[in-house]
Amino acid sequence: MRRGYIAYSTLFAAILSGETFSGRLLEEHSGNPVRGARIQVGIDGAPQLTADLETGADGLFHAPVELLAGEYRVVITK
Fold it and tell me: Do the beta carbons of residue 53 and residue 63 sit within 8 Å?
């Protein structure tokens, strides 16, 4: 049975200086928000996370700090 949400995904994001990292996670097939997904953001190759976030009931997430310019690794799990 195929799940309607992301089970595990890794992507890379380039952040401009002083940018915030936020968004909304939605199911691909229905467009419904994904509640309780974990989103980990870190500088690629660094052992420490920059942000460890969880989506709300509306699928929204927001890093409480501005990120420095650079390339980041983003891991999404549910």
Answer: yes
Angle at 49 between CA 47 and CA 54, to 5 degrees: 145
Please provide residue 69's backbone torsions phi and psi, each rounded to the nearest 5 degrees: -60, 140
Residues in Cβ contact with 4 at an 8 Å cutoff, skipping those fewer than 6 apart: 27, 28, 29, 30, 32
Structure tokens at 49: 């996370």
Q: What is the mean pLDDT of each run of 10 residues along the chain (78 residues)?
A: 46 62 87 93 86 94 82 86
Per-residue b/e over 24-60, b at no fewer than 16 CB within 10 Å? ebbeeeeeebbeebebbbbbeeeeeebbebebeeebe
Per-residue tokens: 61: 């997430």
Its pTM surpasses 0.90: no
